[in-house]
Amino acid sequence: MTTKTRRSVNLRILPSSMSVLAICAGLTSIRFALEAQPHVAMALIAAAAILDGLDGRVARILDAESRIGEEIDSLADAVNFGVAPAVVVYVSLLSTSQAGWVVVLFYAVSIVLRLARFNALLDDATLPSYTREFFVGMPAPAGAISALGPLAAKLQFGVGWWTSPWFVCAWVAACSMLVVSRIPMKKMHAVSVPPNLAAVLLAVLAIVAAAAFLFPYILIMVAIVAYLCHIPFSMRSHRWLAAHPEAWGEAPKQRRATRRAIRRAQPNRRSMARLGLRKPGRTT
After folding, report:
1. Which residues of 23-32 are buried (b: 16+ CB within 10 A; e: fewer)?
2. Is the overall model pTM greater than 0.90, yes or no?
3. Fold annotation for 10-240
4. Which residues contact 224 (CB under 8 A, 6 or more apart)?
5. Helix (H, G, I), strand (E, B), or coil: what is residue 186?
6. How does it sit in the membrane (predicted)?
7. For residue 1, with 0-12 CB atoms within 10 Å meaning exposed, 13-18 middle and 19 or more buried, which class applies?
8. 41 and 32 Cβ atoms separated by less than 8 Å
9. pLDDT tens track, the chain, 284 positions
10. 160 phi, psi to nearest 5 deg
11. 54 to each of 14, 16, 49, 99, 277, how far by Cα in Å?
């Protein structure tokens, strides 16, 4: 075996190695939660989410995608974003609640069901091309970070209504329902940024990086709110694409131009339909 071949083999195991490291981070978060160190537990789950976001991209860059790698990644997601957050939330916030264990079980099972559906949809060749730009339901990493929202609020603001068992149970149950829902949610890598906004995006990323060190819990809560606020826009984009097959193969810039052209051609249609009005001279 040549040096080049050995180097290629070593690089091809890098994505799977990142998935294994993510599993270690997720399981270790449970240990720190049991030792009453929830801040470390949350940091480890966040690290697992970062590794999860990188391993697939690294696999594509290295042309190291494989079936076994996909299975390891799926199992890692079940542990890191299903089991670990459920245990961390239960130990930190719901250990005195009789309904708490039921709620975290519901959450963990919802994550597993969501991952199973995701894997099944990957092999469905009958789906339109535009559906590849959307998740079906909230993705597992976003579900995990959202479920940890009350814990982040506790670490930032102390005890309050946001740490009461009834609110935490309702919050985690709502996150679980979003995870198993069929609501379309835009994939981050499918979002395009116009070239003239690239500098603004880099500045925002710098601010986010600084906030991750200075105000990590506030950053988590802001990220949760921002993600929840994007859902209506994602649903609107999904409906528009479903109604305009001619735009499925267009580049993002062309698609934006198509949407603007349609809005200019029918500027008042939506407002008139919403108010139940019709154009003068038109009979019903």
Report:
1. bbbbbbbbeb
2. no
3. Four Helix Bundle (Hemerythrin (Met), subunit A) (1.20.120)
4. 145, 146, 149
5. strand
6. Multi-pass membrane protein
7. exposed
8. yes
9. 455 445 555 667 888 888 899 999 999 999 999 999 999 999 999 999 988 888 777 877 777 777 787 788 888 999 999 999 999 999 999 998 889 999 999 999 999 999 999 888 877 778 888 888 889 999 999 999 999 999 999 999 999 999 999 999 999 999 999 999 999 998 876 566 666 776 787 888 888 888 888 899 999 999 999 999 999 999 998 888 888 887 777 776 777 777 777 777 776 555 545 545 555 555 44
10. -165, -165
11. 11, 11, 9, 36, 51
Instruction: Pull the structure tokens for residue 267.
Output: 């500027």
Q: Which residues contact 75 (CB under 8 A, 6 or more apart)?
A: 23
Count CB-CB contacts under 10 A for residue 256. 14
Name the burial class of residue 258, with classes exposed (0-12), middle (13-18) and buried (19+) by CB atoms within 10 angstroms of its CB: middle
Residue 194 backbone phi and psi in degrees, to 5: -60, 145
Q: Residue 242 belongs to what H/E stretch?
A: helix 216-243
